[in-house]
User: Which sequence fits this backbone?
């Protein structure tokens, strides 16, 4: 990551208002926030943008958050991968480990906690 | 008796030549007997005999007929009528010959023929008539004797004729069968009849009374041990001045057994009717109460014994009594089972009842009225309502995951927005503090925290939070509307609206997985319980959704639910088709059974489709599941416009 330039975060959720809330919140943290309302859009952005971290919702039509993060791992192995879900208990831990997912954030999330997780994501 | 009052009939048999010059004047002579005499003339043996056998009193036979005359004589010799021979040859030989041949008399056609013949004829006629009368009397006596013997022999009661001293003169075969004793004649009655039989009816007293002509009502005499008692109707009658008596003992064991059986049956029936836990009334053809039981009085709210003669319309309403099952049974002899009905009591209270009607027929099948049975189903209705509601709650439970997801998303961003707004507020506080310190400071802080962006973000966070909480409010409102109890009233409803609002709730939960296609046709208002039908639609939609989910994980991710409404016949058809996993043929005919479920314990009540089936049935409609072409299931619900027949 080049010094001075803000780090880029890709947020994926099929709920526009969640994207909007996260954009407002994390922009203040100094992130350049990109948002994708569909997994397809997320994959396109992963191909085109220099992304440092991906924060994805899990339950989405057509493609789950885990699948999105798996695709991100292939395209951007260095980007930190964080999953957010309303039903964190339902997500198999072995898959989280296999995909090298940094954190699993419950939804609704605690804004301060999420910011702390994302700050940690920038450290190797 | 006989034919003594009938006109005298005489047959004259003579050769045809007697009609001309050879005439002896026989018919003319006979006419002198009197005006009442009928004379018929024959010219040969065959016609003479035919006339003679047709109740003739006399045959006057002209010897000139020759061989025909002999034939007539021979034929009538045994049984008559008498034959008087007329001859022109007055010799003793002729007379003897004719007598030997069987003639009753012989008259010579001489000068005094016209005077002699009527006298001879009359004497023969008188004799013949007397003989005929005696024969008839004898025949009648013989036939009466046979009749008497037949009656006595065949009479289905034991008969005994008793001498004045009480000894038996004679008995009939039935007596011998009933009281076998070998010999009877001359023995005293007490030797032959069982003592308990004589004692039980005091037969000695009965006979004494009969002998003296005193009043003697028939008595019942019994004999035999308990369980095998035979009963006899005993009567006695004096036959003649010598004091002979006729004793009649008719076996009435079977009659008494039948009478007891009928009494038992009647008491049994009465017990059932009086104690059954249902109202029962029997009405005549005009619908008026003829018979009722205490439960009927209780349900109808009337005092004991006041129902007779009243019209059922008093409680069931004129329209229901006329057009409902009671009216149809009275008019058409229809049998109805368990129709829904409402009794309105005099005090205004109403009682839900299940009405069953059957025609009351006599042995020939003529309808005399109707039997109406109506249990009070208040408790049942209450239970049904509870079950319906419980099932409805359970079907909501099946949506819980979807509901949670739909609430969780707005909760998520509203929650995050609130945390942000707290930060925005801190920035605002900083700005206010800076403003107090002067314009320069305010400018600097404004730039530092980007006040313009702050205002934008603050406004956006507020608006989006409002929208989020509004969404949650909507979902809760939908759920509450669906969970709302049915008020039990029949109303005219627009089924497109019912279906659409239910589809909206369900679709909110399943929009990620399911594409919903709607083809609503224009529908007439349908008389129904809308809340109950919404429950049916909910069940079908959730089933469709789950069928798609079950398949989605296997091949495609999304599915399609097609909703269709249209008018058919006298009602509407609602179709819910899915392209889900489908119903295995081996369970297709069980899916509407209560408690039948293919789901894991805790996932389904097994009552969804059976409840739907019951709701639709109570609307007079039908529901069925068909396999969908290309996979999946089609549920078709038919509902009649008038909500089905009512009691």
Assistant:
């Amino acid at each position: 990551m080049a010094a001075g330039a803000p780090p880029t975060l890709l947020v994926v959720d099929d709920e526009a208002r969640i994207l909007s809330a996260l954009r407002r919140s994390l922009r203040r943290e100094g992130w350049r926030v990109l948002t994708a309302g569909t997994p397809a859009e997320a994959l396109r952005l992963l191909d085109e943008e220099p992304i440092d971290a991906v924060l994805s919702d899990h339950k989405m039509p057509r493609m789950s958050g885990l699948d999105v993060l798996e695709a991100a791992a292939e395209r951007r192995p260095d980007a930190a991968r964080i999953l957010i879900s309303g039903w964190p208990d339902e997500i198999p831990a072995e898959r989280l480990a296999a995909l090298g997912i940094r954190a699993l954030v419950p939804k609704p999330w605690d804004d301060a906690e999420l910011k702390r997780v994302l700050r940690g994501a920038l450290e190797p | 008796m006989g034919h003594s009052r009938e006109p005298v009939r005489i047959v004259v048999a003579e050769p045809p030549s007697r009609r001309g010059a050879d005439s002896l004047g026989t018919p003319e002579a006979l006419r002198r007997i009197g005006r009442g005499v009928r004379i018929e003339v024959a010219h040969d043996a065959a016609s003479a005999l035919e006339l003679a056998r047709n109740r003739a009193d006399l045959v006057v036979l002209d010897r000139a007929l020759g061989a025909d005359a002999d034939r007539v004589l021979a034929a009538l010799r045994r049984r008559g009528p008498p034959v008087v021979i007329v001859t022109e040859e007055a010799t003793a030989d002729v007379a003897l010959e004719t007598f030997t041949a069987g003639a009753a008399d012989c008259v010579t056609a001489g000068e005094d023929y016209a005077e002699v013949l009527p006298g001879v004829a009359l004497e023969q006629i008188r004799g013949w008539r007397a003989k005929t009368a005696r024969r008839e009397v004898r025949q009648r006596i013989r036939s009466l004797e046979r009749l008497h013997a037949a009656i006595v022999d065949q009479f289905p009661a034991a008969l005994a004729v008793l001498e004045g001293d009480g000894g038996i003169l004679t008995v009939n075969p039935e007596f011998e069968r009933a009281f076998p004793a070998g010999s009877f004649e001359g023995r005293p009655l007490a030797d032959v009849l069982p003592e308990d039989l004589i004692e039980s009816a005091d037969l000695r007293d009965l006979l004494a009374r009969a002998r003296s002509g005193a009043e003697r009502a028939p008595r019942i005499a019994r004999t035999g041990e308990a369980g095998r008692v035979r009963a006899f109707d005993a009567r006695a009658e004096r036959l003649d001045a010598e004091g002979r008596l006729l004793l009649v003992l008719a076996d009435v064991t079977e009659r008494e057994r039948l009478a007891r059986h009928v009494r038992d049956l009647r008491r049994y029936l009465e017990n059932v009717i009086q104690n059954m836990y249902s109202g029962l009334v029997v009405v005549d053809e005009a619908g008026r109460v003829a018979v009722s039981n205490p439960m009927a009085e209780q349900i109808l709210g009337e005092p004991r014994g006041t129902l007779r003669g009243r019209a059922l319309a008093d409680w069931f309403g004129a329209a229901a009594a006329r057009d409902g099952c009671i009216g149809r049974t009275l008019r058409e002899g229809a049998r109805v089972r368990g129709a829904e009905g409402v009794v309105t009591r005099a005090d205004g209270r109403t009682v839900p009842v299940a009405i069953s009607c059957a025609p009351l027929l006599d042995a020939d099948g003529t309808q005399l009225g109707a039997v109406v049975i109506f249990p009070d189903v208040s408790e049942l209705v209450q239970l049904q309502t509870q079950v319906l509601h419980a099932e409805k709650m359970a079907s909501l439970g099946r949506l819980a995951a979807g509901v949670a997801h739909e609430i969780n998303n707005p909760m998520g961003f509203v929650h995050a927005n609130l945390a942000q707004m707290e930060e925005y507020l801190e920035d605002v506080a900083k700005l206010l503090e800076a403003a107090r310190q002067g314009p320069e400071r305010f400018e600097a802080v404004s730039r530092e925290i980007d006040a313009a962006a702050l205002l934008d973000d603050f406004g956006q966070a507020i608006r989006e939070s409002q929208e989020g909480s509004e969404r949650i409010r909507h979902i809760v409102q939908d759920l509450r509307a669906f969970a709302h109890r049915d008020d039990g009233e029949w109303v005219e409803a627009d089924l497109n609206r019912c279906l659409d609002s239910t589809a909206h709730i369900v679709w909110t939960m399943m929009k990620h997985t399911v594409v919903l296609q709607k083809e609503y046709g224009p529908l007439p208002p349908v008389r129904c319980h809308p809340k109950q039908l919404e429950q049916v639609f909910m069940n079908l939609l959730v089933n469709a959704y789950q069928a798609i989910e079950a398949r989605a994980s296997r091949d495609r991710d999304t599915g399609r639910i097609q909703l269709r409404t249209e008018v058919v016949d006298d009602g509407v058809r609602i179709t819910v088709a899915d392209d889900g996993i489908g119903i295995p043929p081996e369970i297709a005919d069980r899916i509407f059974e209560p408690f039948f479920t293919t789901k894991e314990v805790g996932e389904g009540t097994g009552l969804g489709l059976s409840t739907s089936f019951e709701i639709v049935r109570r609307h007079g409609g039908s529901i069925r599941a068909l396999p969908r072409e290309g996979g999946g299931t089609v549920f078709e619900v038919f509902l009649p416009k008038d909500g089905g027949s009512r009691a």
